[in-house]
Specification:
With about 90 residues, the protein is mostly helical. It has four helices and no strands. It has one domain. Helices cover about 55% and strands about 0% of the residues. Helix 1 crosses helix 3. The model has no long low-confidence stretch (mean pLDDT about 90).
Length: about 90
């Protein structure tokens, strides 16, 4: 399953924030915390994207430069389903 542009924009912003000294004060990490999502869930989604696209994980940093991404899922159930489907074939 392919992640859509909104999902990739969020994951790209989140991944870039991970490099910051205090990422939890930044927009994507605030959204992550507000929705009670573990970081490993997002890391697995990034790895799934990279494998599916035949790319390296680090290439996510260059996608979608929006520093203030929107939460791309309408519910936690939708997020769990979408990211679970994306991640189920990660090796």
């Amino acid at each position: 399953m392919k992640l859509d542009a909104k999902e990739l924009a969020f994951l790209a912003a989140w991944a870039r924030e991970e490099k910051a000294d205090d990422p939890y004060c930044l927009p994507a990490h605030k959204l992550q915390a507000a929705h009670h999502v573990r970081g490993v869930t997002l890391i697995r989604a990034i790895k799934a994207w990279a494998q599916t696209e035949g790319r390296r994980d680090e290439e996510i940093f260059g996608l979608y430069k929006d520093p203030d991404p929107k939460w791309p899922w309408t519910s936690n159930d939708e997020m769990a389903s979408r990211l679970g489907l994306a991640s189920e074939h990660v090796t």
